[in-house]
Amino acid sequence: MQSVSNHPVEPGRRLFSLPTPLVIGDVLALLIFVIVGRLSHGFTSDWLINVARIATPFLMGWFVVAILVGAYRADLLTSPGQLMLRSAAAWIVGNLVAFAVRAFLFQNNVTVPFALTSVAFTGLFLLGWRAVYLWWYNRSLT
User: Of 113, 48, 121, which Cα lies nearest the Cα of 91?
Assistant: First the structure.
């Protein structure tokens, strides 16, 4: 099967598989976002519980939406523009899902400053990481 840019999809990879490096990097990007946020507010207690509590809605929102919009499509690894567009959609809509999960399921407030900061920094970490990965991935093909 050929990708959009005529580079072959890696053998054994399904069209809608979850490329492991992207999954791991996305989890780490969101965890780094939460840890940086905790440190910036001077919170140093109950690390594991609070990092998990804060990160869970963002991880849920990101992965549900990213899978739905095709931000893990293996055939788009050689089409960085297309994959980044899908990643940007997952980032924006995933944050909205995260805020809903945080507010309704976890019963935590979502303030405007928190929402704006979260959108900005999850975008920086997720899209930045993915851009670097896609650059490296496509460079390794040549």
Answer: 121
3-state secondary structure of 4: coil
30 vs 124: CA distance, rounded Å: 10
**Phi and psi for 2 in degrees, rounded to 5?**
-100, 145
Residue 8's contacts (CB-CB under 8 Å, 6 or more residues apart) are 1, 2
| Percentage of the chain exceeding pLDDT 70 | 87
Low-confidence ranges of the chain (pLDDT < 50): 1-9, 11-16
**Complete DSSP assignment for 42-100:** T--SSHHHHHHHHHHHHHHHHHHHHHHHTTT-GGGTT-HHHHHHHHHHHHHHHHHHHHH
User: What is the spatial distance between Cα 8 and Cα 86, in angstroms, rounded to a whole number?
Assistant: 20
**Assigned token pair, 110:** 């979502």
Q: pLDDT tens digits for 94-126?
A: 999 999 999 999 888 899 999 999 999 999 999
Per domain, the residue ranges of the chain are: 20-141
Report which residue type is found at 128: G
Helix (H, G, I), strand (E, B) or coil at 19: coil
